Amino acid sequence: MNRAQADSRKADSCGVATRPAIDFMATFDSPVIPQVGLTGRAVQFQTGPGTAASYCWIDGSQVPIEIGLTTLRQSFPEISSVSLRPGLVTIELASPHLWDSTLFEILSVVTETFVQKREPLAPNRNAERANREFTGLDPTSPRGQVRVRDALTSLDPAIRQIAISLIGESDIHAAAKAWRIAIDDSSRDVRRAAIIGAANSGLEELRPLLERALTLSDACARFVAVTGLDRIGAQRSKSALEPITRDQDARVRVIARLVLSGKRLGR
User: Fold this and answer.
1) What was the pLDDT predicted at 3?
2) Which end of the chain is more exposed for a tag (fewer CB within 10 A), N or C?
C-alpha cells in the first residue's frame, strides 16, 4: 500500500484520529511486532524469517537496491533511515511524534513487503466446537442467561471466552463482575475478551479494571484498555496513561498519546 492508497483509505474513515482504534486491533493477529527503539524516533518491526539480506539506507544518501526500501522512501518522506537485518526492519523518523500519524501506514507496507507469505493456519477446532455449542442461543433469554453464566466456569477456555463475550448482552452489571474475575483467567483469549467487554461497556465503575489492564504483559490488552479509558474520559486516568505513552509496543504508545492529546477515537 502506497501513500496515495493510504490517503484514499483515510478519506473513507471518520478522520485520522479514528484510524488507530479501527485498524491497529487487527495488527495484533499479524506476524509483525512494532517495538520502539532506544531513541523513540526508531521503530523495530520484528518480521520473522524471510526478511531481505542486511542492507542500510540512511538519509537518502544511498540508492536503495532492495525494492522494499524503494517503496518506503517513495511513500514516506518522513523516514530518515531504514536498516534491514534478518527478521528485523528498523525505521527511523525525523521526530518521535511523526509516528502518531504514520505508524499504521508504515506497518502495512512493512507487512506486505517484507513478510514471507505463509500457509494459512489450521482451523482452531476447539473454537469451532465452542461456537457450535452456542449456535442459536439467545443470551438475553432466561435459558440463554443461565447457559452463559454456567459457561463462565467451564474448564474449556474456548467456552469461557465466548461466555465472557456474551454476558454483557443481558446484564451489564453481572458482566462487570464477571470481567473483573476474568482478567485473572489463565487464558490470554479470555482475559482479552474481558478487557474488550469492559472497554466497550462505557462503565465508569470499570475504570480501575481498565487501569489495571494497562499493566498486563499483553500489548493487545493494553491497547484495548486505552481505548476503553478514552470512552469514559481519559484525562481522569492521566496518571495511569502517561507511562503508556512510553510503552515498548509502538501501537500502544501511539494510541495513548492520541487519547491524552484529546483526539477523538472511533466509537
Assistant:
1) 38
2) C
